[in-house]
Amino acid sequence: MNQLFGFCLLALSIPAAYLSFLALAAIPTRRTRLRARPTCRFAIAIPAHDEETVIGRTVAALRQSDYPAELFDLFVVADNCSDCTARTAQEAGALVLERNEAPRGKGPALRWLFRQILRCERYDAVVVFDADTRVTPDFLRVMDACLAEGHDIIQGQHRILNPGDGWFPMLAWAMFLADNRLQNQSRSNLGLSAKNMGDSICFRADLLRRFGWGEGLTDDYAFRQQLLLEGFRIRYEPSAVGYGEAALSWRIACTQRARWLRGTYEADRRHIWRMLHETLCKGNLAALDGALQACLPSYSTLTVLALAIAFIHAFVSWLGYAEFSKWWLVLLCVLVVYPFWGLALERAPARAHLAILSGPLFVIWRTWIAVTARYLQGKVEWVRTPRKGTMEPPAMGHQ
After folding, report:
1. DSSP 8-state class, residue 64
2. CB–CB of 301/12 below 8 Å?
3. What whole-number distance in Å separates Cα of residue 122 and Cα of residue 126?
4. Which residues pair with 97 in a beta bridge?
5. Which residues is 45 bridged to in the sheet?
6. Strands lying side by side in the sheet with 42-48
7. Which of 109, 290, 344, 372 has its CA at a distance of 20 to 30 angstroms from the CA of residue 214?
8. How do residues 181-190 score in pLDDT, each as one tens digit?
9. Which residues lie below 8 Å from residue 246, measured CB to CB, with a gap of 6+?
């Protein structure tokens, strides 16, 4: 019995050690120095399906960016819209292209839009935003500086715009603050690849001409894996901040999460062995990191498993059938401290730490969704996320 629990402890300690390594690597940061005279010409790409309530403000805000107006064009693809998205975006100053073909969804819409706007050699890079995204005024200047440094793909920092709209948006806001630092900053510091958040991300135009965009339910996740296999890495740039709305209710969040997890499982099955092959044949450590992400349990699943097995071990030990290992307490302490470490590095406000205290319910919920999504039968499709569209980002800080 002791050997069985010892094996479980060892198996769970491996992903915990991996997370701890990334957490330590997240400590240093480096601020990108802006250029006095930016030169990169950008195409801003925004996919929108029935987004008339938010698209006008998004376009208007982006047009006020601290960047020469002659060096960027703003494109909106009105994807199978049944409302006034196209007219609203056009009135706000966007160049609008209407798409009325199947399948609908962000991935197909972006692939279609890229084919339209990249036929010419006018643009050096493309920046992708969601229909509700608000950004810091110098976002494009930061991207210009990163491109000048030689980076091909740059992911900005994604923050939650509406933490005051309920418990779930508040918790999502706190979790994104920690995750950006622990998952994205750490990987950039190590020379690995940050996540493709699908929003507030910049690509060199030649790269998109070559690869297009990812496919599947989680096209951004799959595209990152495809890029890893081709030797490209995503640079994380925390000073370029994009704000987006979190789901307003558990019901909406469940639909989002189930689709995301189902899509990641499908992408992992397609790419994990190729990423391992890339690691062994070419020594591509970024591909190894991608493979580890694909096969190791998430933080939520790892925490639930550790708590459950530690409790069972303690109960069996109390009955006298095994000897409880105090290393379980060490493992659990590491997992509890992990998100608070990220918030501490980000110097997040006290309410972010308070939100994380409700994390046990969150990790149980995410684990349940992960289990059901993995074995979900039938077809899963993209569903538009309702947006409130009445918030503006703070001038500075963490809100």
Report:
1. T
2. no
3. 11
4. 77
5. 75, 128
6. 95-99, 72-79, 42-48, 125-128, 201-204, 153-160, 234-244, 134-135
7. 372
8. 999 999 999 9
9. 160, 161, 162, 163, 165, 168, 169, 172, 173, 253
The Cα-based distances of 216 to 105, 172, 369, 398 in angstroms read: 10, 24, 19, 33
Burial 330-358 (b: 16+ CB within 10 A, else e): ebbebbeebbbbbbebbebeeebeebbee
Q: What is the pLDDT of residues 340-370, one digit of tens each?
A: 999 999 999 999 999 998 877 778 877 877 7
CATH superfamily assigned to domain 42-247? Spore Coat Polysaccharide Biosynthesis Protein SpsA; Chain A (3.90.550.10)
Alpha helices, DSSP H, located in the chain: 2-25, 55-63, 85-92, 106-117, 139-148, 167-179, 186-189, 205-211, 219-229, 250-282, 285-295, 299-319, 327-345, 350-356, 359-374
Token pair of 98, please? 């209407």
Q: Is the pTM of this model over 0.85?
A: yes
Domain ranges of the chain: 2-26+271-374, 42-247
